[in-house]
Design brief:
Length: about 500
Amino acid sequence: MNSNVRVRFAPSPTGPLHIGGLRTALYNYLFARKHQGSFILRIEDTDQNRYVPGAEDYIKRSLQWCGLNPDEGPDQGGLAGPYRQSERASIYQEYVELLLEKGKAYYAFDTVEELEAMRQQEQGHAKYDSSTRQSMRNSLTIKQEEVEKLVAEGKPYVIRMLVPEARQIHFVDRIRGEVEFDSAELDDKVILKADGLPTYHLANVVDDHLMQITHVIRGEEWLSSTAHHVLLYEALEWQDSMPEFAHLPLILKPTGKGKLSKRDGQKFGFPVFPLAWQDADPNESFEGFDTFGFNPEALVNFLAFLGWNPGTEEEIFTLSQLTQAFSLDHIGKSGARFDYDKALWYNSQYLSKMDPSVFRDAIIPFLDKAGFDPNHSKLTSICQLMQDRIKTYAELPDACRFFFIDIEQYDEVTISKKWNNDTKLLLKSIRGSLSKSTDFNAEKIKSKVSELINQAGVKFGDILPLLRIALTGEGKGADVFSIMEILGAESTLDRLDKAESVFSGLKPV
């Protein structure tokens, strides 16, 4: 084990944290904990044009909800801070000047119109690189005196890195193995924008070096950018401290085709964000796994398996167990298909095994939202009955609404199939027997009702659905005798009386 391992999760606060980003955070967290290292949160907020108020707080709350607590970060502090890139501008400027002095970067004064004209020469596909840079307005094509004059006059400019010609750039990715890029494929990336803030490329390399990051675990969309980063490490003579890279496979749509996007949640009817996000624009507001009724531990377990597996058949892991089992060697190269049914399965496994008192506390907000009394005298019994019958907390209010309100609708299709003179007489007999009962216990009720059914010669499958419909309105659900016990004698008898009247008045379907 290596206590010097340092990994960072570096999200951009341009909106709510997608579950793809949350999975990246999870893998970084697991790797750090596995090696007794440090898990660092760094906020990459240099793109001020896309900065979204509240997004940073959302990121922090999402990590906290999932139990992925950073060792260092904007709130935790640490020796490598500050941990917001917007607060590190002077640091980046130092290294920009160093790159300019070493001839590894240059000023570019091109206007938007000039850049567009250059691109149009190649039907929009031209890059700002070794084949075009000599025809543009930059410090490679104009005299030093002119450069200094333009800068002094406040002429807008950016700083670009100088990508060398005819180079093969090699690095080893912990997931994909040996990776190679030809420098001819690369453009001269902007490393310092006109507003004086760095782009992702420079800021990441500088911050990872100064924060002594040992492993960069991020999405595969950044794989092609790594060639530029390797060149920056070389230009700054930091090759010996360059971190190891691991680029994670994409999370794919349920169809398996294309990257899962935030709009897919709305399209397919499932969450793609850990927590609900409320925006001033209703089109940019989204439900989260929290409001869908997920246990965060179940979500973490599900996400861990989107691209990784332990090499065994076991699927249920606590966060601690995931930490022990996790390895970069078991992350696949191919995209992982998002399977919401599997997420529901994970959640149902966790809900069924929760401590009853914890489960009860967790469902109270969902009862409140449904307008049901969270102080119901039998809530503990209701929870015990329903806990292993639901897949999400949000399902519970609807699944047990009959405990809180009168029956509004009855399953008329089942009634029409089961309601006849024999079942009608038997329902009367059951109602009469229950009215004399002094102990309204589920087991004793079941024994008494079973005896009456056997005596009447009616099939259990013909009368039990009718009993359940009489009590709940639905033909399927939880144990009917437990429902009777929770409802109590008075409510049970009242509902049986009402049901007889309703059933008899229904026309055959």
